[in-house]
Specification:
The complex is a heterodimer of chains A (557) and B (501). Chain A is mostly helical. Chain A is built from 21 helices and six strands. Among the domains of chain A are: 3-142, Four Helix Bundle (Hemerythrin (Met), subunit A) (Up-down Bundle); 152-247 and 258-288, no CATH class. Chain B has a domain at 217-378 and 398-497: 3-Layer(aba) Sandwich (Beta-lactamase), CATH 3.40.710.10. The relative contact order of chain B is 0.13. Chain B is built from 18 helices and 19 strands. The chains are: A mainly alpha (557), B alpha+beta (501).
Chain lengths: 557, 501
């Protein structure tokens, strides 16, 4: 991969460097805008909670700004082409989470003591610290992981550890793992982590690796029913395995949300890899079938299914009878908080989010909803959607299948997690104990989600960098191009013509003498031979690459 | 792989669209329901943000809100505990207030239209002006005396009630019902504990939560004879007119003989009306009732307020006062429309289906004392602004109804004074004051002890000062005498509270 790759950079730098600089400038401006929103929130919260605005009300936003500024510098140095929207959006969400938690802390102390409340104190201070740690971890990952495909080397390890982490809380005795009826934790003394948050990343990495290898097999159709191709029965193995696994989670960790998350992640990645809608249908049927089964088993025999049955009933009618004061209390208070906020909200600091139990954690969205109203929550949802869309865009842009699957899967999981928890607290779906990414208090969730962001940034950098640009960390995909396709990387010219260019040279009828034929294209074949990720068949793969290529010029105007 | 990636993007957008639609439902469509939901603690937090006004009794706080360190910034406190529980009521964290707390809820809370200017001021001062203050008509000393006397009555009656009125205005001076309860346990910020306390009181068979002064009716017994007397005087009788009496009377159509409480009472064939009332002559009034007929008795009783099912006691000019249960005479005619003489005879001595509330009994005495004019009873003397100086209205007493002519009323006064000076109500006498009254002993359920009653009034220089009704339910023998004594004590307390005027 040398000659073809090395030649273009000579032309690339000026334009590419300019593009990178422009992207980073956009990122900085957006970051500053985000911090201005946070400063505004802090001012409003102090005005409402203290009756006055202290001179140093902006300090939390300042500290956060410095943390994100550091991340921005790392991106400048190590991923200069990365999507400029992702960091500011995530930073804004994360900061609003921190200052909302600080606002909860202030609400918990007497009015007179609020002005002197330390920035590092309480849940808000802890979250600020966690943010610093999580962003640092993301920066370190971004710094050292110069190519996202490196992850695929550790896929089996990650997958194994991921499953262990996922199962661990289910296996551990209740006192080590249960919080609020859901066994999602590992608690040791005062220290506790939610391993599922990390398992999510690891399993996504493993799935991406596994599916890239198996996609051809899984994409094989055997039967066509109602215009949809269904896979062969024997190929159903992996999906059934993951389904069983997620049902185990559902039953033993008592958590529908987590089950939905893992299962959704797998199904969506399977669909992306195989392009077979049938997998989505099978997945949906299996999931809802499983959920209904769990509901009726809970009704009939109770036992491990009882929890899910109860939660479903709370969801169906949280206000019935005494439920609003007992098992339905959390959801009812969440709804009342959201309703009290109404269209515009009471304003930061002016509501009583403390009425909602677990408001710093699972119910942070409802707590914020009371104060920022439907308008504010819609803005938050848009921010989340922006991350998801940008992540998917990175997946679209990147050239290797592993990167596509990884970024697509992670971006979608993030969106799915938001859906599960926000849908839960607003009674769209049964409530489950998920964290709200970037908003909920807690280090596990923050760290895992920032690592996810680092990966998305890395993939987006690869997607947006011109091939071979010196600033871009990406090298021409070691795995991707079939022999004839190597020159595609030189951009501009349509792939088709390039592809044809080298081929006429071999003399028809003399395939046995390749080395002599084309001196201009030195030894591309060994590269193809060591393509573990791509799988044997070149053809379907080449086609995808063909689809990818035309979109490139559009994305890099 | 790009086509499915794009479709996954569409799926994500659909999911977020669902979230958005559902948030619209929750935060817009259902917002009002949720905002005002009974489960929504914010309603209370907002309410407790503003210091609730004071309910004053004789210049002292009968209910006040003290600041706390709680989420709810003020705790309602009732310094007199059980003594004023029914009349002042209580304002729980969850649920509806009772008594004056209910009647003047908006004014006390500071949310009434009258206090709009004060709330407007809040916008500039950034403070929550406390709610308005309510000055009651109640007399601290009279109320405390009544409660103490009921609690410690010589007959050990558990259930009783006292109502004291100013006959000339209708102002309620005392309103007591026993057994009572400590309202402080119902207004605690620990709503679970408060609910538990309420459930315990609600389940108590002695019904401590019931305000018997206005919500419960009792057989009036001999105090009903005041109605008979008024009916007779209206129809040409004088207090010296002789009426047939005797030691026993059996009404036509029955075998049940009506006797007097003691053989010594009116064994003569004829007694004067005043003598009959003084001694509480059953045979005389039974025959008088039969002679007057059903219409006369019903009309007179209704003139005194029997059958009024819309009387409310609260703030004059407002219709949200405490509803007084209607007192009743009962049906005095047979199915064919003719007089039901056995029933009339029983009713005339306050038995059969006749029932009165202590409030109605007090109104009877007050009407007699006030020359036949019944004043609208009320509890709220004045509304004061949060500053305690701005007045938002002083009670303007007004007539409820003309009951009887002043001459009839004067005769009734004389007859009732005779009861206290010479007859059954001697224990109600007050030195230096002219006291009139009527005792009553009412049989009620079989195997249950008789109720003891006293209604009366005190006058000085021809001017009525106070009227009172005392009920000792199931007090048994001597109950009416004890009731008379308590009535005297309460009236004395009212007079003392006013400096003798």
């Amino acid at each position: 991969m040398t000659a073809a790759a090395v030649s273009p950079p000579v032309a690339a730098p000026p334009a590419a460097g300019k593009r990178a600089r422009r992207a980073r400038r956009t990122e900085l401006i957006l970051l500053v805008l985000g911090m201005i929103v946070v400063v505004g929130y802090l001012a409003a919260a102090e005005a409402n909670l203290l009756g006055t605005i202290t001179p140093d009300f902006w300090v939390p936003a300042g500290i956060l700004g410095v943390i994100y500024g550091g991340m921005h510098l790392v991106i400048r140095l190590r991923a200069p082409y990365a999507d400029p929207v992702i960091l500011p959006v995530v930073a804004t969400l994360n900061s609003l989470g921190v200052v909302f938690l600080r606002r909860l802390d202030l609400g918990g102390v007497k009015t007179g003591e609020r002005a002197d409340y330390s920035i590092l104190a309480g849940e808000g201070g802890r979250q600020l610290l966690w943010t610093a740690i999580a962003v640092t971890m993301a920066a370190v990952l971004l710094w050292f992981l110069t190519d996202h495909r490196t992850i695929s080397r550790y896929a089996w390890t990650l997958g194994f550890v991921g499953i262990i982490l996922m199962m661990l809380p289910a296996i551990l005795p209740r006192r080590f793992s249960e919080v609020n009826g859901a066994k999602l934790w590992i608690k040791v003394g005062s220290f506790s982590i939610q391993p599922g948050e990390f398992a999510k990343l690891m399993l996504a990495s493993f799935f991406a690796y596994y599916l890239v290898r198996k996609r051809e097999v899984l994409a094989l159709a055997s039967k066509r029913v109602l215009g949809i191709d269904f896979p062969r029965g024997r190929d159903l193995g992996p999906i059934l395995a993951v389904w069983v696994l997620s049902l185990v989670v559902l039953v033993f960790e008592k958590d529908l949300g987590t089950a939905l998350l893992y299962f959704g992640l797998f199904i969506v990645m399977l669909y992306i890899a195989t392009e077979r809608v049938s997998w989505l249908l099978i997945g949906l049927i299996l999931f809802f079938g499983g959920a209904f089964l769990a509901y009726f088993l809970g009704k009939l025999i109770g036992g491990p299914f009882a929890n899910f049955y109860d939660r479903a009933n709370i969801w169906l009618d949280p206000f019935s009878g005494d439920r609003a004061y007992n098992e339905g209390y959390q959801l009812v208070q969440s709804l009342l908080g959201l309703g009290t906020g109404g269209l515009f909200g009471t304003g930061p600091g002016a509501g009583s989010p403390g009425q909602v139990p677990e408001v710093h954690n699972d119910f942070v969205f409802a707590g914020m909803g009371e104060e920022i109203g439907l308008i504010g929550l819609t803005a938050l949802l848009c921010l989340y959607l922006l991350i998801v869309v940008r992540g998917l865009k990175a997946a679209l842009g990147v050239r290797d299948s592993f990167g596509k699957l990884l970024a697509g899967g992670l971006a979608f999981t993030l969106g799915l997690q938001v859906f599960v928890i926000v849908g839960g607290v607003s009674r769209l779906i049964p409530l489950t104990g998920q964290t709200t990414p970037f908003l909920s208090a807690g280090g596990s969730s923050l760290m895992a989600n920032w690592l996810l962001v680092a990966i998305l940034l890395r993939v987006s950098d690869a997607a947006r960098a011109p091939l071979g640009a010196p600033g871009g960390m990406i090298r021409p995909p070691a795995s991707t191009p079939p022999p004839g396709r190597a020159p595609v990387g030189t951009a501009a010219a349509p792939a088709g013509t390039r592809r044809n260019a080298p081929t006429p040279q071999p003399t028809p009828g003399t395939p046995s003498a390749p080395p002599a034929v084309s001196p201009g294209v030195p030894a591309p074949l060994p590269g193809t031979a060591e393509q573990p990720i791509i799988g044997g068949d070149v053809d379907p793969n080449a086609e995808t690459e063909m689809i990818d290529s035309p979109s490139r010029p559009k994305e890099n105007p | 792989m790009n086509a499915p990636l794009r479709r996954v993007g569409v799926v994500a957008m659909v999911l977020f669209g669902l979230l958005f639609a559902n948030l619209n439902f929750v935060q817009w469509h259902k917002a009002n329901d949720y905002r005002t939901s009974q489960y929504n603690g914010r309603v209370q937090v907002a309410e407790y943000d503003r210091q609730r006004g004071v309910i004053e009794v004789s210049g002292k706080p009968g209910a006040q809100s003290n600041s706390t360190d709680d989420n709810l910034k003020f705790l309602r406190v009732y310094p007199y505990k059980a003594e004023f529980a029914h009349v002042i009521g209580y304002k729980p964290v969850n649920g509806e207030a009772t008594g004056i707390e209910y009647i003047e809820n908006e004014f006390l809370a500071g949310t009434s239209d009258q206090l709009f200017a004060d709330r407007l001021r809040d916008l500039w001062s950034n403070e929550k002006t406390p709610g308005g203050n309510v000055v009651t008509t109640l007399s601290l000393r009279a109320q405390q005396t009544a409660y103490k006397e009921l609690l410690n009555n010589a007959n050990n009656a558990k259930v009783g009630s006292v109502v004291a009125l100013d006959p000339t205005t209708g102002a309620v001076l005392a309103m007591v019902s026993t057994p009572s309860y400590d309202p402080n346990v119902l207004v605690g910020h620990d709503t679970t504990a408060a609910n538990r306390a309420y459930d315990r009181l609600a389940a108590d068979p002695s019904q401590p939560l019931l305000n018997r002064a206005v919500k419960e009716t009792y057989a009036p017994g001999s105090i009903f004879k005041v109605i008979d007397s008024a009916a007779a005087l209206e129809r040409g009788y004088t207090m010296n007119t002789s009426i047939p009496a005797g030691s026993s009377y059996t009404a036509p159509g029955t075998t049940h003989a009506i006797k007097n409480a003691a053989p010594s009472i009116c064994p003569e064939a004829q007694v004067t009306l005043i003598e009959a009332l003084t001694e509480s002559c059953n045979t005389g009034f039974a025959q008088l009732g039969v002679a007057l007929g059903p219409q006369a008795i019903t009309d007179t009783a209704e003139a005194f307020g029997f059958g009024d099912d819309s009387l409310r006691v609260g703030q004059l000019g407002k219709d949200n006062g405490i509803l007084v249960a209607p007192s009743q005479v009962g049906r005095l005619t047979t199915d064919s429309g003719g007089p039901d003489q056995p029933i009339i005879a029983q009713t005339a001595i306050g038995q059969a289906d006749a029932r009165v509330t202590p409030m109605q009994a007090a109104l009877m005495a007050a009407t007699v004392a006030n020359g036949g004019v019944q004043m609208q009873p009320y509890l709220i003397q004045q509304l004061l602004g949060p500053d305690r100086t701005t007045s938002y209205g002083i009670a303007a007493p007004h007539k409820l109804r003309d009951v009887c002519s002043s001459s009839v009323a004067q005769s009734l006064q004389a007859m009732m004074v005779s009861v206290v000076e010479n007859g059954t109500g001697k224990k109600a006498q007050i030195d230096g004051y002219v006291v009139g009254g009527k005792t009553g002993t009412a049989q009620n359920a079989e195997n249950a002890k008789d109720h003891g009653w006293f209604i009366g009034f005190a006058m000085k220089d021809g001017k009525p000062l106070v009227a009172v009704a005392v009920l000792l339910a199931n007090a048994g023998s001597g109950g009416s005498g004890e009731a008379a004594r308590i009535g005297g004590q309460v009236m004395k307390a009212v007079i003392a509270d006013r400096g003798g005027k």
